[in-house]
Amino acid sequence: MAIGTALTRLLGITHPIILAPMGGVAGGKLAASVSQAGGLGIIGGGYGNAKAGYGGKDFMEEQFRAAGNAPVGVGYITWSLTQFPELFDQAMERAPKAFFLSFGDETLFASRIKAACVPLICQIQDLDGAKRALDAGADIIVAQGTEAGGHGKSGRTTLTLTPAVADIAGKVPVVAAGGLSDGRGLAAALMLGASGILVGTRFWATPEALGSDNAKQLLTKARSDDTLRTRVFDIIRDLDWPEGYTGRAIANDFSRKWHGNERALGQNLKDEAEAYWTAARAGDTSKAVVFAGEGLDLIHDIKPAGEIVREIATDAEQLLRTQAGVAVS
Ligand SMILES: Cc1cc2nc3c(=O)[nH]c(=O)nc-3n(C[C@H](O)[C@H](O)[C@H](O)COP(=O)(O)O)c2cc1C
After folding, report:
1. In CA terms, which of 8, 64, 111, 221 is 20 to 30 Å from 260?
2. Which long-range contacts (C-beta less than 8 Å, at least 24 apart) are formed by 235-238?
């Protein structure tokens, strides 16, 4: 048995679970594992360039190769991708299972993606973003609440944003994102009108994910209360995020020192950046960013991605079977 939804039918997948296109984390191996287990894996191309410590044409070539023949999608940070047209072409040549765009104006790419009959997935953070993505022709809308790990906005929670987006999306499937790490999250999202979930942080704590072992270990020990939305990791990495976006990460010595002191960080950028990148290369999580969402409280171990997909699906199915009518009398 499996939970069939508008999302599983549109994508031809078994379980309504999508791997978030986490830049520098969701490589070809992780994406392939999620797809092979019945979800949809998306390779995270991030910014496209190598500024954040990964990226570029060769990085993506390597990740596509690591995915082998598994049907995987590709995702980019929209505002950054506009500077790297060759990466868009490279991804389209691979005939991805879906093209995922987040953060910025998707209309710039939508017509070319749709002309190639590749499903367009757009991740948004508020209703205006949802309307823009629907107008652009999105085939799937991801409603990202502020609980999410990585970049997003501080305004809306997954719990309230998901049904509001479902109300305006008509037949377009809505996927909930942010803080969803287990079967309870999937079952709840379906009750909110979503057709599936997008999972990031939970899939980082897997052997297949890219990123340092220190970061993965930290994910199993840190709590949701330890996370914080901040701009300091963008400032230090010289990433020019548009106004309104912050990244949710596990607080560490670096963010405790500079969050709230962004101007001073800007004035000390040269020295601080050198120390930051040295620490990042060494996997030192007291300085280097570890993006993570509020689902952290539910993550206690590192285990294969396929196991996570199957567990989320089975637990959600069980909950929907046994709990859905429990309080009705
Ligand atoms: C380590 C990490 C890196 C991320 N990088 C990206 C990215 O490059 N592009 C993107 O669209 N979203 C990125 N995200 C956000 C995800 O798309 C998604 O919204 C989020 O992971 C969902 O919340 P969760 O982490 O609580 O599951 C990232 C999230 C994490 C945790």
Report:
1. 221
2. 235/262, 235/265, 235/266, 235/269, 236/265, 236/269, 236/272, 236/273, 236/276, 237/51, 237/52, 237/53, 237/273, 237/276, 237/289, 238/51, 238/269, 238/273
